[in-house]
Amino acid sequence: MTAIIITGIIIVLCILVEIRREMRTFQMTRYTVRSRRLAGMKGTKKILFLSDLHNQTYGAQNSRLVSAVLREDPDLILLGGDMLVGKRGHSYEPALQFIKQLAPICPVFYADGNHEQRVKKRPQEYGLDMDRYVQELGEAGVRFLSNESACMELGGIPVRIYGLEIPERCYGHFKRASMEAEEITQNIGRRGPDCYNILLAHNPGYADVYRAWGADLILSGHYHGGIVRIPGIGGLVAPGFFLFPKYSGGKYEEGDSTIVVSRGLGMHTLPVRLFNPAEVVVLKLKGQQ
């Protein structure tokens, strides 16, 4: 009996040590994305996708995170939302100062998460001036996409990047609200017929709808990897308290669409990570004949 108790204590201590370690570190997760729509692309292009920072800092002024980004020498940086914390008493300065450091590296596009969205809509409730946040980042060269899109070229291929502001009802707890592809069209228009279409859509729970809309590459976050990752199964729980979400973290190929869900860089609500390291996602885009 004593041996069982001691073993149990050791296991609990090991888990606590691992949780503490994962809360202080991040990794670079690499995926290759191929598409017929990228046929003719010159060389390989690199996109860095960062999501759900939630004001987390890795070193003074996020020096470790900035250094990791610089080493990758990306062609494009995409931010998938929830970089700040939308809660009274929290400043957005850690996120603001970090993102400003990204702007000189390469083009940076930023789509809303539910935290940015609720602060924008109810600034007095949260005590944060989102107009200033957006203005300062814009002056630094960061482009916000709130139900907007922007076009650029990567390796000679036209690429259109969309930032979808997901309705707040779709962030509720315990029950999945409905959303149709037509609603996305009403908000951001139809997909570009002659472009490679990248959709920044914070909540991965509607990946089937994003596919139906016509996104070639869907980039999401929000689920924080499912908090605890179970080998062979995936994430345990989503922020809406749904168990075993389908898209908790990773790369998924479905039809002509690629879905990439970041496990995020920070934590919120449930400040725990277990077998679920924070990450910067590195995407290598290649053409496919």
UniProtKB/TrEMBL annotation:
<dbReference type="InterPro" id="IPR051158">
    <property type="entry name" value="Metallophosphoesterase_sf"/>
</dbReference>
<protein>
    <submittedName>
        <fullName>Ser/Thr phosphatase family protein</fullName>
    </submittedName>
</protein>
<dbReference type="Pfam" id="PF00149">
    <property type="entry name" value="Metallophos"/>
</dbReference>
<dbReference type="InterPro" id="IPR029052">
    <property type="entry name" value="Metallo-depent_PP-like"/>
</dbReference>
<dbReference type="InterPro" id="IPR004843">
    <property type="entry name" value="Calcineurin-like_PHP"/>
</dbReference>
<feature type="domain" description="Calcineurin-like phosphoesterase">
    <location>
        <begin position="46"/>
        <end position="225"/>
    </location>
</feature>
<dbReference type="GO" id="GO:0016787">
    <property type="term" value="F:hydrolase activity"/>
</dbReference>
